[in-house]
Amino acid sequence: MTSSSGSWWVFTVVVVVSLLQQLCFLNTTTTTAAASRIILSNETDRMALLEFKLMITGDPLGVLSSWNDSTHFCYWYGVSCSRRHVGRVQVLDLRSEKLSGCIPPTFGNLTELIYLLLSDNSLWGEIPLVLENCQNLLYVELAYNNLSGVIPPQLVMSSSSLIYLDLSDNHLSGALPAEVGGLLNLEELDLSHNMLHIGNLSFLRNLVLLNNSLSGGIPSEIGRLRRLQELRLSENSLEGTILSVIGNMQTLQLLDLSGNRISGSIPPTFGNLTELIYLSLSDNNLWGEIPVVFENCRNLVSIELAYNNLSGVIPPQIFRISSSLNYFNLSHNNLSGTLPAEVGRLINLEVLDLSHNMLSGGIPTSLGSCVVLGALYLQDNLLQGIIPPSLGSLRGIQVLDISGNNLSGQIPKSFEGMKLLQIFNLSYNNLEGEVPSSGVFRNGSIISVVGNGKLCGGMAELNLPPCNFIQKKKTFWRHKSIKIVILAVTGLLCLAVMGSCMLIFWFRRRGKQATLSVDDSQLLLSYHDLHKATDGFSATNLIGAGSFGSVYKGFIEANGIGNTVAVKVFNLQRNGASRSFMAECAALKNIRHRNLLRILTVCSGVDYQMNDFKALIYEFLANGSLEEWLHPVGTSTDEPPRTLSFLQRFNAAIDVATAMDYLHHQSGTPIVHCDLKPNNVLLDMDMVAHVGDFGLARFLQSVAEPSPLGHASSSIGVKGTVGYAPPGKSSILKIYKLHH
Ligand SMILES: *[C@@H]1O[C@H](CO)[C@@H](O)[C@H](O)[C@H]1NC(C)=O
Ligand SMILES: *[C@@H]1O[C@H](CO)[C@@H](O)[C@H](O)[C@H]1NC(C)=O
Ligand SMILES: *[C@@H]1O[C@H](CO)[C@@H](O)[C@H](O)[C@H]1NC(C)=O
Ligand SMILES: *[C@@H]1O[C@H](CO)[C@@H](O)[C@H](O)[C@H]1NC(C)=O
Ligand SMILES: *[C@@H]1O[C@H](CO)[C@@H](O)[C@H](O)[C@H]1NC(C)=O
Ligand SMILES: *[C@@H]1O[C@H](CO)[C@@H](O)[C@H](O)[C@H]1NC(C)=O
């Protein structure tokens, strides 16, 4: 009895499963006609859902157990109904429920369906053709399943209002239906990780086909995608050349063809892609020279041409493209010639990678102007000459690799101040002299020096011979003439020092209101000093909290002068705070104006727990921020109410405008503040307004260019405060950020 009922059970299961399999692959074209004849209602929707439940062979989480007649189907798990058409299914959301089975053709009866969300399950079989009846579909998400077969063109054709179509990570094959081009509302199409090949597309805005097995050449039809903003075909097997028709896609903002087998040279029509923000052609077989035309692409933020066979020199014009360039990677090519001095114009550059080329000549001194540089890779080239001491001004640098070159001379002392350095690779050069052992070099594991025969000293970990000073000194002192010269110079120096001391003393006595200033080079403050000045950063001294840190009032005594200051302590745990500190230092380094908040000094070190500590010390402005005057809160009784007269408001506006004029037009390289709001405008004793907080500030390219403000600021994706910042431009930058 039990054995016979058992075998019957097995038989039934086998029959049902094979029946289901047939159904899954049965692309019922006849039912399409049937659907138009029958009257669709709440009842047909219920049947369609029950059919789906039948088709599901595996439901380990039991999510479909609620799909029974004890409840109305509109309340079944994952189902929501339309309010307008009572009892018609509008949403089917069963994402990540571990369901296995297939999508039944009866889904064609769910004509009010808007959201079909079944991604991340184990659904197999084909996408039913009948989905073409579901003309209200806006969001279709079937990613991460085992769906096979072709993408039914009917699906795409009928739901022309489709906004989002994600079929990525399945086993779909065949050509991309040309009808995709008709999806005028489509905002995102993701077909990555399938076995599709490219078809005939036009009208598309974004095209993402990462990691498919697209092969063959890039079709010339691509030139017809005139509205395309984003083209990502990376990690495929594309061959052939980059066609010059690519220059027709003038709205393109993101182009990623990396990880293919594309050969040939970069066509000069790239110069037409003036909206381009992000470009990656890495990891292909491109050869020939880098075209000069890139200088037209003034919005570029990131360029990657690494791992190709590009040759010739790096055209200096490429460094003129835009000062907003942030990432520049030409590594692993055959580039020769020198690194042009124009590289110093890239003042927003964070990563420069020119490693594994054949660059010769010296490292340009101008690199020291790339103040926000965080990583510099120049290893494995043929660079000669000394390491420019100007690189010591790259205070934010974390990785500096110049190994495998022919650099000579000494390691500049100025490098001791590179506080954030984590990797400093000097191996295999011809450097000589003493390796510094103070500052950042106290940590011997940061620096690699092997393969430099003439280096000495440094920390013990480096295993270098000690520097033999005594011997050198002896030979040195033997020359009488040198002795005399040195004596004379020392004498003169002594006189000069005494003279200037007297002068300073005299000025001190004359100056009645001496204050601290940056020029007091003695004013070096440690964490300890600031801790003391602000009563251990006590809450009573807290005068404000900004986006990246807190501001405290402090009292500092230096050189016999006491002064109230404002100390801005950066919260380095917060992502971007370190960059904000760098941005602020870079911006404030060379500017000075009566309507800008004056910075007195900086402090960059470690706190008592040995955590990194960064602070900026400003003059303290007694009357607080403009915000407190414009929108006073909780006025205490003992203080007079804060109100501004019309004239005071007018003057504040003029002060701010004067400061902006200075930043934009008078200060050399134009600076955009990016976060101008009453909170960041401070008032002094005489109610003169001073603009502060340069944590989001950016440099711009030369003012001579036509409307550089509009261009560059839009392409760098200005941040700032909602309500005070201009509206964002596009989603491109988000994608660019994700990529890094
Ligand atoms: C379907 O709609 C009809 C008419 O609107 C209604 O009488 C019936 O109760 C509904 N059935 C279900 C299952 O909602
Ligand atoms: C029917 O669904 C309800 C929830 O909607 C559930 O509580 C009940 O156990 C289900 N009945 C069966 C027989 O699965
Ligand atoms: C729609 O529902 C009707 C009635 O339940 C059914 O006969 C028909 O086959 C369904 N259509 C599809 C495409 O499944
Ligand atoms: C691509 O589509 C367009 C119009 O949709 C058509 O004119 C053209 O012939 C198609 N090209 C190919 C190669 O199918
Ligand atoms: C390295 O530079 C020196 C001059 O500084 C030069 O004499 C020598 O030939 C160079 N070596 C190589 C391999 O280029
Ligand atoms: C430094 O460079 C050399 C040669 O390029 C390499 O072998 C070594 O691994 C590098 N060291 C570090 C710490 O990156």
Describe the protein.
This protein is of the alpha/beta class. It folds into five domains: 1-170, Leucine-rich repeat, LRR (right-handed beta-alpha superhelix), CATH 3.80.10; 214-336, Ribonuclease Inhibitor (Leucine-rich repeat, LRR (right-handed beta-alpha superhelix), Alpha-Beta Horseshoe); 337-467, Leucine-rich repeat, LRR (right-handed beta-alpha superhelix) (Alpha-Beta Horseshoe); 476-510; 514-739, Transferase(Phosphotransferase), domain 1. Helix content is 21%, strand content 22%. The chain has twelve helices and 42 strands. Strands 13-15-17-19-21-23-25-26-28-30-32 form an eleven-stranded parallel sheet, with no helix packed on it. It has a six-stranded mixed sheet with strand order 1-4-6-8-10-12. A six-stranded mixed sheet has the order 2-3-5-7-9-11, with no helix packed on it. A hairpin with a 2-residue loop joins strand 35 (549-558) and strand 36 (561-570). It is globular. The two termini are 66 Å apart. Residues 1-36, 470-476, 509-522, 702-718 and 727-740 have low confidence and may be disordered. Bound molecules: 2-acetamido-2-deoxy-beta-D-glucopyranose (6 copies).
